[in-house]
Design a protein that fits this description.
The N terminus and C terminus are likely disordered. The chain has a 4-stranded antiparallel β-sheet, sandwiched between helices. The protein contains 6 helices and 4 strands, in the order E-H-H-H-E-H-H-E-E-H. It is about 35% helix and about 20% strand. It has about 200 residues and is α+β, with helices and mostly antiparallel strands.
């Protein structure tokens, strides 16, 4: 059976939205790819575990391409979580969101309390295909690296912080699909005030 990867992404110089009641992922910088071979499944899905794996894999790829590792911020995690949850709800990969104050990537970042100089977002939708959390993180990041716009966001030297989020949903045909979001920003003084620059 042919599994297609649906990707939507663009470097949005001034764009990123919010959905209430989302799971907050606690993500740390560093090699946090989970050990073990637990398969990603809807009934036992751990959003924080997959977000952490995608975060670590993204920074690993950045380092391999001679880019500095990026830091995270809980407010960015909120923006990423909101869009991942929204995509799982509507069962499609999109940068848009019909919820108030969440329509664009910039709206979502502003709603989370940030005032960045630059915003970019990568989103993806792909089959979990009985992969482990670590395997799925590698496949997601590689799919973004294989797409010029997503690659530009992921390897940008113009961003200082990012966050990842993911949700799993069951499609009408029964396939379990992951909806993933990365939000990248260039920090401004609000980050410096929080001690994260």
């Amino acid at each position: 059976m042919n599994r297609k990867v649906f990707l939507v992404g663009s470097a949005l110089a001034a764009t990123v939205a919010g959905l209430a009641a989302t799971v907050r992922a606690s993500i740390v910088d560093g090699p946090a790819i989970p050990r073990g071979s637990q398969v990603v499944e809807l009934d036992s899905f751990n959003a924080a575990r997959l977000a952490s794996a995608v975060f670590a894999e993204s920074n690993r790829v950045r380092a391999a391409h001679h880019r500095r590792r990026l830091a995270s911020d809980p407010r960015l995690e909120t923006a990423a979580n909101d869009q991942a949850a929204f995509m799982a709800m509507v069962l499609r990969s999109t940068h848009e969101n019909f919820l108030a104050k969440s329509r664009t990537p910039l709206d979502r970042v502003l709603r989370a309390g940030l005032r960045p100089q630059r915003v970019a977002e990568n989103v993806a939708m792909m089959s979990t295909h009985r992969r482990s959390y670590a395997e799925l993180a590698v496949v997601l990041v590689q799919a973004w690296m294989d797409s010029p716009g997503h690659r530009a966001n992921l390897l940008s030297r113009e961003v200082t912080h990012f966050a990842c989020a993911a949700r799993v949903a069951r499609m009408v045909n029964g396939d379990e699909v992951v909806f993933a979001t990365q939000v990248f920003v260039r920090a401004d003084t609000s980050f410096a005030a929080s001690g994260l620059n």
